[in-house]
Amino acid sequence: MKKLVAILLTAVMICSVFPAVFAEGEVPFQVENGGFETGDFTGWTLPEGWPVDESGNPLGLSSDTTYWAEEMPFNQAGNYHLDGWATTIPEPESWHITSSHFVLGGVGYITVRMGGRTAAVKVFKADGTQVGLFRNRHFKDSGFPSVKKGVGGSWADMATFIIDLRDYIGEELYLELWDEESPGSWAQAFFDEVVTLYDEIPDYKTKVDVVKDGNSTEMVEIPWQRVLNVYN
Ligand SMILES: [Ca+2]
Ligand SMILES: [Ca+2]
Q: For the segment 174-232, what is each residue's pLDDT rounded down to a tens digit?
């Protein structure tokens, strides 16, 4: 009996650590390679003409956790993120990449880390109908080099944004990660950790990412935040 209980407990633990990532059909609940942890663009579609290195590999992924002499934090998750600078695409220009298709499961919320003034996430139905536009509203060019809330600003550091897609639960969707065209400085975008399946609504009021502050050894919090749909 004890053994049976132990087996059942183990099964429950495995299920909670590794939630089902495949829908009933072929299309999974989670976008492929949402955190770029393959170290390449597996699962993502790049536009024609995207810059490549001398071996023909697309540019744009970085494993740097900080930038500049002040060691500003990117708030990268894992070992890689998508880095606008690393694409080598000139700053005044716009770019985007397209995710694999997913079926929106769970509670209908997704999260994306984004930084840079012109970062945005667009959401589409499988037939190409756009249903969402969610812009980074974390960018703030003051208080350099601190990213501490209420004291510093936000530049290439990514915050985790919670996107409410409950209207589309059960539907097949895909995302585009955008560096939107815009005049002026900091027309850059940085992305990581696209998660499209949650079994519980992430509590954006309490969740934070913790990073080492710019030019400091102090650990500071980057709060998760809700981002509203501005597509119409
Ligand atoms: Ca990552
Ligand atoms: Ca740009």
A: 999 999 999 999 999 999 999 999 999 999 899 999 999 999 999 999 999 999 999 98
CA separation for the pair 71, 194 (Å, rounded): 24
CA atoms within 13 A on the CB side of 13: 6
How many angstroms from the chain centroid is the CA of residue 197? 13
Determine the distance separating the centroid of ligand 2 and the alpha carbon of 74, expressed in angstroms: 17
- Considering every ligand atom, which ligand is closest to the CA of 74? 1
Question: Do 186 and 173 meet the contact criterion of CB atoms below 8 Å apart?
Answer: no
Q: What is the CATH number of domain 32-226?
A: 2.60.120.260
Domain boundaries, the chain: 32-226
Instruction: Please give the biggest Cα pair distance in the chain.
Output: 68
| Alpha-carbon span 122 to 125, nearest angstrom | 10
Alpha helices in the chain (DSSP H): 2-17, 84-87
CA of 17 to the centre of ligand 2 (A): 38
The whole-angstrom separation of Cα 91 and Cα 181 is 9
Structure tokens at 45: 């579609």
Ligand 1 centroid–CA 193 distance in Å is 5
Query: pTM of the entire structure?
Result: 0.90
Q: What are phi and psi of 45, to 5 degrees?
A: -105, 125
Q: How far is the CA of 46 from the centre of ligand 2 (A)?
A: 16
